[in-house]
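Standup notes, structure subgroup. Blocker cleared on the adenosine-5'-triphosphate input:
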Amino acid sequence: MAQNETQYNLRTADLDNGIIIVDDTLSIYHFNKWLELHTKIDEESVLTKKLDEIFPNIKTKTLIRKIKTALRMNTPTFYTAATSHYLIPIKINQFKNSIFEYMQQDVSIIPYDKEKKLVALIIKDQTNMASANALLNSHIEEIKKLNQALIEEQKLREKQHQQLLTSSRSAAMGDMISMIAHQWRQPLSLITTMMANMKVKKELGTLDDATLQNSFKKIEETIYYLSDTINDFRDYFKPIKVKSNINLYELFSKSIFFLKDEMSQYNINYKINIDKNIEIYTYKNELLQSIINIIKNSIDAFKETTLTNKNITVSLEQKTDKIILFIEDNAGGIDKEHLEKIFEPYFSTKSKNGTGLGLYICKTIIEKHLKGTIDIYSDTNGTKVAITLPTLL
Ligand SMILES: Nc1ncnc2c1ncn2[C@@H]1O[C@H](COP(=O)(O)OP(=O)(O)OP(=O)(O)O)[C@@H](O)[C@H]1O
Ligand SMILES: [Mg+2]
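Run returned:
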């Protein structure tokens, strides 16, 4: 009677869970309403039958072992609803995106009647939980994959960055060597000329001590310049260098050191219209390199003209936060179609005599290093180069 009462209670009280009472051979003693509803099997037809007769997929041995353990220990044991495992196959109403075909179940095995070796199997629907878990797992997998892809991409980027650094470094090296070679052409030809002069004079027996000394002094100075040029460019690419106060009149006087001979050869007048005491705080040799390139271009342009009055004039304009240096010639100007290309590396109209690096070097040095700008204006009369340098740095 007591048992019947319990049975009755189980029938009515627990409509949220499935309850089966079986013995340790899996003979069925009770099959509750919840299960009747969900399996469409009524209790009458299963009583005294074995559970694995009705549900042949049940792992008979494991279940019996668990039941016996529960009875022997007189404590409940559990089956957890591992993904896709269930005790009683109950088809789920298939929704479009449902993960499981069968209801996922948690099963508790509770000792019910020790004498008769009966246990109650309480079946809880864990489909929602399992779905959430499965969904979570699939998301975790997805996230792991994405993460992995991200890591791979990161690695690739680092590798590419490294390659870019290496190649830009070697490009910079190449640039540096080209620039040094460019800046060396003038002084090297000066040394060659002076040496040839001395040789001729010696052979004619007209080489006096003063000429010898002067020539050596000039050659020495030129060699210093050559070595300075290497250092400047190396420092420029390093970049560890020192700014100093530069007197601009002196700088422009000095800048024609290698160009004087050519200037007088072609009867070019060089005028420095600058106050003798104006200074600027910047990198001296780099500014010098740029000015030499610009003046050399003017000289080259004069070589193509038949003018009698050839002038290169330098001047400057002081503003509150900058100084603008002007280098102007009347050598006929730059063709309009060329004007937009003159800063490109290797653009030259001088067939074999030009590398086309001069203005490219100027622009690189002035913009990247001196933090200034260079502009070139040209008309049929001549060319005006403006170098703007900041004074508030
Ligand atoms: N003052 C100028 N007058 C006329 N043309 C000029 C002047 N300055 C530059 N150019 C033009 O700009 C071009 C590029 O000048 P850039 O100094 O870069 O190279 P380059 O002088 O040809 O070669 P390199 O400097 O190696 O001797 C020249 O070939 C020339 O056509
Ligand atoms: Mg040039």
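Discussed briefly. The pocket of magnesium ion (ligand 2) is lined by residues 293, 296-297, 354, 358 (CB under 6 Å).
Next: hand off to the docking folks.
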